Automatic annotation (TrEMBL), chain A:
Keywords: ATP-binding, Hydrolase, Nucleotide-binding, Transport. Required for corrinoid utilization. Probably part of the ABC transporter complex BtuCDF involved in cobalamin (vitamin B12) import. Probably responsible for energy coupling to the transport system. One of its GO terms (molecular function) is ABC-type vitamin B12 transporter activity. This is Cobalamin import ATP-binding protein BtuD. The keyword Glycoprotein does not apply. It comes from the Archaea. The keyword Phosphoprotein does not apply. Residues 5-244 form the ABC transporter domain. It catalyses: an R-cob(III)alamin(out) + ATP + H2O = an R-cob(III)alamin(in) + ADP + phosphate + H(+). Its EC number is 7.6.2.8. It is an enzyme of class 7 (translocase). Pfam families: ABC_tran.
UniProtKB/TrEMBL annotation, chain B:
This is High-affinity zinc transporter membrane component. GO terms for cellular component: ATP-binding cassette (ABC) transporter complex. It comes from Candidatus Methanofastidiosum methylothiophilum. The chain crosses the membrane at residues 9-32, 38-57, 62-79, 91-109, 121-152, 175-200, 220-240, 246-265. GO terms for biological process: response to zinc ion; transmembrane transport. Its main location: membrane. Belongs to the ABC-3 integral membrane protein family. InterPro entries: ABC_BtuC-like, ABC_TroCD.
Length: 246, 271
């Protein structure tokens, strides 16, 4: 059995804070899983994603991604892990075009001193077409609507052709129609390329159909983890998962 | 007026202006985009203080300018990076300390004070560019250009957003420090031509002018140095023909270019 992500009793504490934000998280994610992470504001969802891709350094326990222990700055691992952050502050005057922002998603993977090839440009172009943003590819990134910008960030993460993709509320700015569309596209990637997905999502109704597992977080801990059908039972949701610890 | 200078001096002045304008404005594109303006400001004044110390000690001012500006970039870099401290305050302190020390050192060297050497590091001068100065400038220009070409992917990603660059697997820290380090070298090597007080204008104004016309970072990186070179050459011409300090002339020219750019900027026009 191939593991994509493995966390063993991991604590993550933000710099300057005394109390860890993630407390003793243990979690195993198999390759090819499609996981939704839910939970109230401040539960630690974003912190969990950034602990997995090494943007935040855990201070206890062990984080393994694609079989390798995350150590040091974790840049090597991030070449295989796509990330769509929850918030990215893009100023209106930011001097970058949409097509460049998407292509840049591949830069880390291409590697130091290696040239950008025709294939790199093609993949980026395909992703833009796929996400329906090819029409705005020469627009400045700061001049897009929230939803358009979100699609650009998703295209950027997909352009890397990662093995694992972490998305932090990728639908928050999309209308319902677009949510379904993008969601279908993600399912396509999951099915055809075997990408592993971890998606933080607030709107339970827009959890993609391909999702097989739901993790519920609260107060820095995982309070429930299981099949979508089991976890999303109305009575459990209503109780807010209080007191349930798996 | 021009006839009284030898061809060699004029030739060196022109080459010096081209190289200084190019490198300063190239590094300026990074400084502006990464919001490091106040850091660049502190660096240039530290370089001035260093050069003044060099004159006081009767040693090569360039070496001390280099030491001082590099020290500031390496000492303040981590602070600006982490934003743990209000960097504005620290930079304000460094800036006033540098100016105080610089003027003090100049004052303490009575026979050279307000002599041409001392004035030169304050205001810059097209005269007295030596072969060594030109070679140093050429080396730093080549290094800066190679740096941008070789690490274009990394630099471009970092200029867009450092956190997103890191998320895509780029090691941003070394590049951040390399940019700071190259900027401090550029500042120190430009001192002779533009002077410590105004080298900063040459970093900020040309790129800010080009910013008015483009949303494409690639073009900004390409054209800012060209505007820098034009500013330097025009400034030099003004300095030669009106007998004004070179640094002031260059700063005035690039401020005028910036002003015009803002006025005719398509970014500010409606429709
Ligand atoms: N940079 C930071 N420094 C200190 N504490 C932080 C920082 N970022 C987040 N926290 C704290 O960590 C906890 C978890 O934050 P996190 O962003 O992971 O929550 P979340 O589940 O993603 O919430 P949301 O649904 O609002 O996005 C919160 O209590 C928050 O206050
Ligand atoms: Mg969050």
């Amino acid at each position: 059995m191939d593991k994509a992500v493995e966390l063993n009793s991991v604590d993550t504490t933000y710099e300057g804070e005394k109390i860890p934000c993630l407390k003793g998280i243990s979690l195993q994610i198999k390759k090819g899983e499609f996981i939704a992470v839910i939970g109230p504001n401040g539960a630690g969802k974003t912190t969990l994603l950034e602990t997995i891709n090494g943007l935040l350094e855990s201070n206890k326990g062990e984080v393994k991604v694609l079989g390798k222990a995350l150590r040091g700055d974790g840049n090597d691992i991030r070449k295989y892990v796509g990330y769509v952050p929850q918030d990215y502050s893009i100023d209106e005057l930011t001097p970058f075009l949409v097509s460049d922002v998407v292509l840049m998603g591949r830069y880390g993977k291409i590697g130091l001193l290696k040239p950008i090839t025709k294939k790199d440009r093609e993949v980026a172009k395909n992703m833009m077409e796929y996400m329906g943003i090819d029409g705005i590819s020469k627009r400045p990134i700061g001049k897009l609507s929230g939803g358009q910008a979100q699609k650009v960030m998703i295209a950027r993460a997909l352009a890397k052709e990662p093995e694992i993709i972490l998305m932090d509320e990728p639908f928050s700015n999309l209308d319902f129609e677009a949510r379904r569309e993008v969601s279908d596209k993600l399912i396509h990637f999951h099915k055809n390329r075997g990408m592993t997905f971890v998606i933080v999502i607030h709107d339970i109704a827009s959890i993609p159909k391909a999702c097989n597992r739901v993790i519920v977080m609260d107060n820095g801990r995982i309070v429930a983890d299981g099949n979508k059908e089991d976890i999303l039972k109305p009575e459990l949701l209503e109780m807010g998962y209080k007191g349930i610890v798996c | 007026m021009l006839e009284i200078f030898s061809t060699k001096i004029i030739l060196f002045a022109i080459i010096g202006a081209i190289l200084t304008g190019y490198t300063c404005s190239l590094m300026g594109t990074f400084v502006v985009r990464m919001n490091l303006s106040s850091l660049g400001f502190a660096m240039s004044h530290a370089a001035f203080a260093g050069a003044a110390l060099g004159i006081f000690l009767r040693k090569d001012p360039l070496i001390f300018a280099l030491l001082f500006s590099t020290f500031v970039s390496l000492a303040l870099g981590p602070l600006a990076d982490k934003a743990k401290l209000k960097t504005d305050v620290v930079i304000g302190v460094i800036f006033s300390l540098s100016m105080a020390l610089g003027l003090l050192f100049l004052n303490l060297s009575p026979d050279t004070a307000m002599s041409s050497t001392a004035l030169r590091i304050l205001w810059g001068s097209v005269l007295g560019m030596t072969t060594a100065d030109i070679i140093y400038l050429l080396i730093i220009t080549v290094i800066a250009i190679l740096f941008v070409i070789m690490f274009f992917k990394e630099i471009n990603s970092i200029l867009f957003d450092r956190k997103l660059a890191r998320a895509s697997g780029i090691n941003d820290k070394p590049f951040y420090y390399l940019i700071l380090f190259l900027t401090s070298l550029t500042v120190a090597f430009s001192l002779k031509l533009v002077g410590g007080l105004l080298v900063f204008a040459l970093m900020i104004n040309p790129t800010s002018s080009v910013y008015q016309f483009s949303y494409d970072m690639k073009k900004i990186i390409l054209f800012s140095p060209i505007v820098g070179v034009i500013s330097c050459l025009l400034g030099m011409l003004m300095s030669f023909s009106l007998d004004l300090p070179t640094g002031s002339s260059i700063a005035i020219v690039c401020s005028i270019i910036f002003g015009i750019s803002v006025l005719i900027s398509p970014k500010r026009r409606k429709g």
